[in-house]
Amino acid sequence: xxxxxxxxxxxxxxxxxxxxxxxxxxxxxxxxxxxxxxxxxxxxxxxxxxxxxxxxxxxxxxxxxxxxxxxxxxxxxxxxxxxxxxxxxxxxxxxxxxxxxxxxxxxxxxxxxxxxxxxxxxxxxxxxxxxxxxxxxxxxxxxxxxxx
Length: 148
Description:
The protein has 8 helices and 5 strands. It is α+β, with helices and mostly antiparallel strands. The protein has one domain: CBS-domain (Roll). A 3-stranded mixed beta sheet has the order 3-4-5. It has a two-stranded antiparallel sheet with strand order 1-2. Strand 4 and strand 5 form a beta hairpin. It starts with a helix and ends with a helix. The mean pLDDT is 83.
C-alpha cells in the first residue's frame, strides 16, 4: 500500500488567512492541526490546535491553570475572541518546524518513519513539484496499518 492509497484531501490554510477562520476549519475537520501552504500549494508547516488555544487564552490562565477556574462557562464560550484580528502567521511559533512530506508512492512504513521522526501527527503527500495532493493523519495511518 502506498501513501496515495491512504491520503485524504483536507482543507489547508495560508499564513495570511484570519486565525478565526483557521480555528473554524480546525474544529470542523476534527484534526490535531492544519497544514499551512504557500501560494503555490506547497506545504510549509503545521498550525497545531494547541497553538490556536495558546493565542486565545489569557496569559494568566496559561501561567496558572487554577486561575482558569475563576472564569465562568458563559465567559469561556467567548475565549476565542482573544484571537482578535490575528492571522495564521501570528499564531505560528517563531521556530516553525518543517512539515514532513512524502511522495505519493511512499510505502506506509516510510510514512510511519517520517511521522515518528518528525513527531507531527500529519504528513503531507506531495507531487514532483512539492505541491500538496493530500495528507495522512496519524489516525488514518494506524487504521490502515492495523487493518481496521
